[in-house]
Amino acid sequence: MAASSEHKASAPVTAYIALGSNMGDREAHLMRAIGELNNQPGIEVTAVSGIYETDPVGYTDQPAFLNMAVAVKTELAPLELLRTQLRLESALGRIRQERWGPRTIDLDLLLYDNVRMDQEELTLPHPRMMERAFVLVPLHDVISSSHPLHEQVSTTTARALQAGKDGITLWKTINWRSASEPSGS
After folding, report:
1. DSSP H or E run through 78
2. Which has the closest alpha carbon to 37: 6, 74, 12, 78?
3. Is 94 an active-site residue?
């Protein structure tokens, strides 16, 4: 699909977003981010991965992360979706001090339909996702089997888990739909 980076998609498309947190109540930060994403106009969360605890990468002298991924249906163009994510990060207390440093919340746009783009503000697919088990394992939970990168994600995930060197452990499974629905009476 050839989507403009500035205009709304002609029809809703599926995008995949990675989430991470390693400060404060990590799970609460993740759940709030998912809820806020789902409440944005033109975005609907359709699938949520398990929550994985992962060792930090890059700058390693910091607490472990909780990571997950979500699939969303969106009418927003890629750059609009990215900018929405950045606004949400800021609203949820993200302060950018050092690359790969501790954070309350991190939202990374991994895939947007089958769009490939390389701009200063956004590169799709995410340029380093295939190197990171903390991204691939949760993404594997939610990526559609019909997505062109599904097989590559599956193969790379299996290799990363078999190697066992990436410090990733299933921390918790959640049911987004039942967790997000109001309790009935």
Report:
1. helix 78-91
2. 74
3. yes
Indicate which residue of 26, 108, 113, 132 is catalytic. Answer: 108
**CA dist., res. 110 & res. 108, Å (int):** 6
Residues 6 or more apart from 153 whose CB is under 8 A from it?
Answer: 130, 136, 139, 140, 143, 147
106 is catalytic: yes
Please write the tens of the pLDDT for every residue from 44-84. Answer: 999 999 999 987 776 667 788 899 999 999 999 999 999 99
Return the structure tokens found at 33: 């981010």
Domains contained in the chain, CATH given: 13-180 (3.30.70.560)
- Rounded Cα distance between 75 and 62, Å, is 37
* 32 belongs to the catalytic site: no
d(CA 69, CA 47): 8
- For the chain, the helix, strand and coil percentages under 3-state DSSP, each to the nearest 5: 30, 25, 45
Q: Looking at 25, 61, 87, 103, which residue is catalytic?
A: 103
Question: Of 26, 32, 94, 132, which residue is the catalytic one?
Answer: 94
User: To 10 degrees, what angle do helices 78-91 and 26-39 make?
Assistant: 140
